[in-house]
Amino acid sequence: MKILTNWLRAYLPPLPVDDAQLAEDLTLRGIAVEGIYDLGTGNGSLYEMDITTNRVDAMNHYGIAREAAAIYGVALLPLNTELPKHSPSAKDFSVKIEAEDACGRFTARVLRNITIGDSRDWFPGAEVDTYFKLLEQKKISNAVDATNFAWLAMGQPTHAFDLDKIEGGIIVRRARKGEKLKTLDGIERTLDPEDLVVADHAKPLALAGVMGGWDTMITPDTKNVLVEAAWFEPMAVRRTARRHGLHTDASHRFERGADFAAAPVASAIVSGILLANGGFIEGDLVDVRVPAMEARTAARKPVALALSEVRRILGTTIDKDGITAATVENVLTALGCSLAAQGAHDAAWQVTLPSWRLDIEREIDLIEEVARVYGYNRFANTLPAFGGGVTALPWAQAESAVRDTLRAAGFHEAIASTFCSAAEAALTAPQPGQSVPLGNPLSEEAGMLRPSLVPGMLSMIAGNLHRDVSDVRLFELGTVFSGTTEKVDERPALAFGAVGSLPQQSPLHPARLIEFHDLKGVVEQLLARFQTRAVYFDRFPPEAGLMPAWLHPYRAARVTAEGATVGWFGQLHPAEAAARKLKDPVLVGELYVDRLYKLPLRKPAAREISRFQPVRRDFSLILDESLTWEVIDQTLAALQIPELVEWRVREVFRDKRIGARDYSLLLGVTFQASDRTLREEELQSFHAQVVAAVGKTGARLRT
Amino acid sequence: MTNEPIPNLVAFDEAALDQAFAALERQARDGASALSSPEAVEAFRLQWLGRKQGLLKDVSDRWLKAASPAAKKPVGERFKVLKALVETLLDAALGAGPSDAALAAEAIDITLPGTRRLTGAEHPITRTLNEIVSVFAALGYSIGVGPEVETDFYNFECMNFPPGHPARDTQDTLVVAGQERRAQRDRLLLRTHTSPVQMRTMEQQPPPVRIVIPGKVHRNDAQDATHSPIFHQVEGLCVDTNITFSDLKGTLDHAMKALFGSSVKTRFFPSFFPFTEPSADVQISCIFCGGKGCRKCKHSGWIELLGCGMVDPAVFAFAAEKQPAYDPKKISGFAFGMGVERIAMMKYGISEIGQFYAGDMRFLSQFA
Hints:
By secondary structure, chain A is α+β, with helices and mostly antiparallel strands. Helix content of chain A is about 30%, strand content about 25%. Chain B has two domains: about 15-105; about 125-365, BirA Bifunctional Protein, domain 2 (2-Layer Sandwich). In chain B, the strands form two sheets. A seven-stranded mixed beta sheet of chain B has the order 1-4-5-9-8-7-6, sandwiched between helices. In chain B, strands 2-3 form a two-stranded antiparallel sheet. In chain B, strand 6 and strand 7 (about 275-285) form a beta hairpin. At the A-B interface, helix 6, helix 10, helix 12, helix 13 and strand 17 of A face helix 6, strand 1, strand 4, strand 5 and helix 9 of B.
C-alpha cells in the first residue's frame, strides 16, 4: 500500500519529525513502512507500507494519521464533511435492507444536475493527476475518482450509481437463483442465491461490497447520481467475492471489517467533490441501519480493563515508572477509545471502543494497544524462573545413533521432497493402494504424499549423476505417509542410497564399484547399535510377490530384526535404473526406523579378553551354487563349541575349473579358550567336528 | 655361509699388525654399512661371531695362538678392539634396523593426495535445528513434535484462525484430497506451521510448559530463491504463572545472542498473528555488518528473524477444554517461531533455498 506523507500530514498539526523519523516511529508501532521515496523539496515522500491484515483501519491516509497523532500526542484534525444545504424532496429515496444478516447499514444520497467530467483539483496544494499517478490509481471521471479519493483518504468504499437507471428504490438482498448481473469489469455473471446484491425493484445493480454493475455505471451522460456508502458484513462479502473470483479494494476492506460509522462521512466527501462541478442535493441522507449490526460494531459494550492485568501480561519496563494509569489513558484515548473509571476500583476502566477498530474486542486487545503505542522496545529483557525438568523425546538417542552410524559410514544426510508422483507412489508404497493424494498439489509430479523415501532418494541420486557427480552416498531420515484421505498414518523412515566407487578417489589403490555387500555392511553396523539377538537378511523368489518392485529380484534382501521386517535394500531394479538413465548399479534401501526405535540401544559391556593364544585354521571348501554361506554359518553356530570363537569367509572364488555349478569358499575359524592354552588333541577334535558338520551340508573339503 | 679364510700373519711387528687389523676393521665396517634386513644382520653376526666359523674365531685361532709370547700382547689388544668394534656395529645394526640405502629404496611420493574416506555430513538444516534446540534446552525447554498432516482444527481453528478468517489467506495451504465433505475442523491438510504442536502439548500436559518444537512444514508456495513449499520451523512455547512480555523479550534476546554471538542486539516490532497477542516481529542487528548497514541487511542494519507474542487467551480457552488449568486469568505464556532455512542460509552463506532439498553431494560435502 502506498501513502503520501503530504496527504497524511494534512490531517495533523505540524509534527516535530521529518518523514524518515515518522516512518521509523510508525514502523516501531506496527504500522510498517517498508520503503521511503523522496518526492523532492516540498512534495514530501511516498511510503511503501505493509499493514497487517488485522489493521484494516490503518490502510488509508486518515487511519495512519490517527496512529501518528497517538504516537506524538497531538490532536487529529477532523475530516471535512461540510456540504451545501440540500433542497427538499417530495419523498425520501426508498432503501430497504432485506438481508439484515449481511448488510448493517446503507446510506443513499441523491445528487441532481451533476456534470460528469474530468476531476478538478479538489485537494489543497495538490493535483489529482499527481496524487493518483503516485498512488497508481487510474483517473476515470470526477464521480469515480471521488469514490476512490474517499477510499484512499479514509478507507470507506463508496459507489456512485446513475440514478436514472435505477427503477424504484434500493433493496439489499440475496440474489435469486439464476439472476444475472454484468459487473463493471464487463463480465456477465450468473448469481448464486448466497450472493449479496444491491438491487432496485427490478434487478440486481451491484455485487454488494465487491463490484458495481455495468448498467448503472456513471457515464458522461449521467445527470443524476445516487451515492452509496454502506456497511456489509465481512463473511458475506468474503463469500461473494470468493465465489466470483474477485478481490477488489472494496471487498478487501469489507472482508476485514469496515467502520460502521464511516458511511455518512464518506458519502459527504464524495458528494462534496461532485457538487464542486455544480448540481444539488435532493432530500436528506437516507440512512438505514440494522440495530443488531450496530450493536456488534459502532455501539459495542464497553470492555473492562485493569492496570494490574496490563502489568501482569506486559511485565517490566526500562522506564522507572513503567506503565501507569496515565499511560493507559493517554494511549487509548488517542486511539479513539473513551475511558470511564470503573466503580470503586483503582486504575480500572470501562473502555468504549472506536467503531473503526473491530479488531479490538477484549481486554487483551487493549493491552496490546498500550504495549504497541508505548513501544515494545521500552520493555525490559527479563528471564522467567523455571523449576521443571527437561525431557528428551523417547527416540532421540536411537535417532542420533542412526544418524551417527550413517555419517561414520560416509553418507551425507539429505532432505528430499515430501511429495512424489502417483507412479512413484505405486512403485514404492509398502502397502499397495495406501497412498494419499493431495487435493491441490504443486504439480502432477508432486501429487502424492510420499509412501516411501525411495522416490526422493532416487531422484537425488539421479540429480547427482546427471550433474556428473559420480560418487553418491546419501541418507534421509524423514516421514512417510500411508492410509486413506480419511485417516493418514505417518511414520519415520530411513532411506539410503549409494553409487560409485570405493575408495572414492585414490591414485594408488584400485577402485571398484560399490556393491550389495557394502550396503549390507552398513545395515549390519546400523542394526548392531540396537540390542538385537535375531537379525536376518532374507531373499524371496520373485514369484512370491514379496520383493518390492523397485529392487533387483536377485540382488536385494529383506531385513528382519526380532522377527519384524525392518526394511529392504539392494540393487535398484535394472528397469528402474534404465528409466532414470542410470548406468552404474545403484544401491538403495529403506528401513522402517519406527520398528528399530522400539528396540533398546545396545549397551556396551566389557568382556574379559583371553590371555591365551588363539589358533586359526583355514578350510578350503567346494560348494554347490545353491549352498549359501548362511547354511555354513548356521551349521557352525549349531556346533556350540565355546572355544570356536570366530568363523568367517575369507574368500569366495569361482572358476570353471572347480566345476560348472560349484564355487570355492575359504573358511577361516579361530579357536580360543578363556582359561587355558588349547591342547593339540582338543584342536584336532574341534577340527574334526567342523569338517564333519560342514560335510553334512554337502560342502566338500578341497584336497 | 663360509668365510674366506683370513691370511696367515707373516710378521708380528707393530706396523704389520696395524695393517692386518685395519683391513679387518674396514671389512667389518663395510659389511655393517650394507646391512639392509634382519637376515643380513644375522648373517653378519655369524660371519664375525659364529662359534665355529666366525672370522673372530679364525683370528683368535690363527693369529693369537700363532703369536710368539712376546707378540701375544699386541695381537691380543688389537683383537679386543676389533671384537668390541664388531659387537658395536652389530648392536647398531640390530637397533637401527635397515640401512639408509635400504630405506631409500622404499621411498614413496608423499605429495600424492591422501586416500580419503568420505565423512558423512550433517544436513545444514539438522545442524541448525540442533543448534537452536540446544540453546532452548539449556533454558529448560523440552522437545515436542507433532504430525505433518494435521487437521484444520489443530492447524487453524484452535490457533484462533476461525473458519473464513482472512488471516488464513496468508498461509497458502496444501490439502489432502477428498476433504470437501468432511466437517471443516476434521479436514486434513499439511501443517503450515509448527504451532499446532503448542495445542497438542497443552492438551497433554498442564502448566508449567516449556517446549521447543522443531519440524517440517509445507505451504502452497511457488519455489524461488528464498521460498520453498517445504521448509522447517522451530516453535517455542512457555506457559506458567506470571510469564510476561518482558520475559519473552529477555528469552529471545538471550537466545539470539547464544545463536549469533553476544554482540547481537534485538528489537521488537508490533506484528499480527492470530494466536498471540500482543504479537511481535523480532529483528537482530545485522550479523554481517554489525548494524552499520550492508547489502545483506538492505542497508538497514537489521535482519528480521522471527515472530512471537503472548499466547492469545482464545488459544488458552481451547486448551482449557481438556486441561482446565489453562485459565487465562491465572496463567500466561509466550510463543515464538522461526524459519530454520532462513537462519541456516544466513549462517552458512547459502543463496538458494532449493539447495537444501536437492541432495547435491557437492553442496552437502561442505558441511562434513
